[in-house]
């Protein structure tokens, strides 16, 4: 299958992978022939990429980081808890979080088990789900990225559990920020931005006194916007003053934020998101965590059309474990001519070759 940007689709293309909504219901099923109306609807729903049936890439299979069922179960659990937390009743809020801790622990353990059993590099670019609420989907994605990163960093089971729960709850304080500010399409005023920044402290204050939640988790909410050079917030702490789990979540948080659609900007590709992380490595983020992210995440997902620095074009056909930015490319075009016989080129064997463009993006 080929992974194409929705905006580049033409009517008549055959969908290669089912698209779901946030309830887990099928929006468009695998094998359906897309019409112009369907394609326009997908763009409205912010489905950026879809898998299309393609003869030259029929054997290229998209990787699934976790099962669709576990993904939907986790999203629904996050959605249910966070919606209940929008209440002003502090006693109710405390009870909700206390009850949620056991459910989230179970889900984190299941996600960790599935990620460990999955031998493919992690990617979310080809996950075809629509979500109404950015905070809920972002919390889920950051949890998945954080756990994939934690596994690469060889954290033990208890650390992974705390990391996963910390990632789920990292933005819980945003439930106390006015929705019109969170969803504002334009630039925030200084006052509005200060309210958004306060979500770190809101989250910490909510979580720190709940007996079923570890204080480590509360510090993940408190510190995920701190930076190792001391230029983060809310306290401007730096280096080893920042909890290690919060440092991991901060990398996952930034990567998902820049590679996800927002009302005020277009999403970046995973390769561009990695560039953002590298630009901050050593100042904002620990170099070792960014390097681990590169090893754990497929920066160029299977099926993505790419162009190399020597002009050749092709499709990502496979991954090299622990080399997320050096995939295997099926070359389909040379010197502006389509090849009669495609061939595989493993970039790990050709250090002089670089991917310079992701086509149809």
Automatic annotation (TrEMBL):
SUPFAM superfamilies from the UniProt entry: HD-domain/PDEase-like (SSF109604)
HD-GYP domain location: 113-309
Domain of life: Bacteria
Pfam families per record: HD_5 (PF13487)
Species classification: Bacteria, Bacillati, Bacillota, Bacilli, Bacillales
Name this protein carries in UniProt: HD-GYP domain-containing protein
Domain HD: 135-258
Gene3D superfamilies per UniProt: Hypothetical protein af1432
């Amino acid at each position: 299958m080929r992974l194409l940007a929705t905006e580049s689709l033409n009517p008549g293309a055959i969908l290669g992978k089912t698209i779901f909504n946030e309830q887990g219901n099928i929006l468009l099923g695998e094998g359906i022939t897309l019409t112009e109306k369907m394609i326009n609807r997908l763009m409205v729903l912010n489905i950026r990429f879809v898998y299309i049936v393609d003869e030259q890439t029929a054997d290229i299979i998209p990787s699934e980081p976790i099962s669709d069922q576990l993904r939907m179960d986790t999203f629904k659990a996050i959605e249910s808890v966070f919606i209940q937390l929008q209440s002003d009743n502090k006693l109710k809020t405390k009870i909700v979080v206390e009850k949620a801790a056991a459910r989230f622990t179970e889900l984190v353990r299941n996600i960790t088990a599935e990620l460990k059993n999955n031998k493919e590099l992690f990617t979310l670019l080809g996950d075809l789900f629509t979500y109404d609420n950015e905070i809920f989907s972002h919390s889920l994605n950051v949890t998945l990225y954080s756990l994939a990163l934690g596994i690469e960093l060889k954290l033990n089971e208890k650390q992974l559990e705390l990391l996963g729960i910390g990632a789920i709850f990292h933005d819980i304080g945003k439930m106390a920020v006015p929705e019109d500010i969170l969803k504002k399409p334009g630039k925030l005023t200084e006052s509005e931005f200060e309210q958004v920044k306060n979500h770190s402290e809101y989250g910490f204050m909510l979580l720190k006194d709940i007996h079923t939640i570890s204080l480590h988790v509360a510090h993940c909410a408190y510190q995920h916007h701190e930076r190792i050079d001391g230029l983060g917030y809310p306290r401007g702490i730096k280096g080893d003053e920042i909890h290690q789990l919060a440092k991991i979540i901060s990398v996952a948080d930034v990567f998902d934020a820049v590679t996800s659609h927002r009302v005020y900007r277009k999403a970046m590709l995973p390769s561009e998101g990695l560039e953002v992380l590298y630009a901050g490595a050593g100042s904002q983020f620990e170099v070792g965590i960014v390097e681990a992210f590169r090893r754990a995440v497929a920066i160029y997902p299977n099926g993505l059309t790419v162009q190399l620095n020597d002009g050749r074009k092709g499709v990502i056909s496979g991954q090299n474990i622990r080399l997320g930015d050096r995939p295997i490319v099926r070359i389909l075009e040379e010197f502006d001519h389509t090849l009669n016989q495609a061939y595989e080129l493993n970039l790990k064997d050709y250090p002089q070759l670089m991917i310079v463009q992701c086509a149809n993006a």
